[in-house]
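can u do me a favor
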């Protein structure tokens, strides 16, 4: 049960932060494409940067999910002791 709960928290954190980053990157990408990009090379570079940012956000989201699980367990353990 403990392992499944940890996996669920990590996946939920990664998914939530990944989706939030995706929405933000979509808006920024559209703005960049319509106002700043001058060639296909500019768009390709922006796409690669967006993929890297997305990957980092997913990793950070998983880490935050793990931290949230630890905090939740500590709070639950201290409440049971009282």
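np, heres the sequence
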């Amino acid at each position: 049960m403990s392992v499944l709960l940890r996996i669920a928290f990590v996946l939920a954190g990664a998914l939530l932060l990944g989706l939030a980053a995706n929405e933000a990157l979509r808006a920024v990408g559209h703005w960049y494409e319509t106002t700043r990009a001058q060639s296909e090379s500019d768009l390709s570079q922006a796409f690669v940067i967006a993929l890297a940012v997305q990957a980092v956000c997913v990793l950070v989201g998983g880490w935050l999910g793990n931290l949230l699980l630890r905090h939740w367990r500590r709070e639950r353990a201290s409440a049971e002791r009282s």
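The radius of gyration is 18 Å. hope that helps!!
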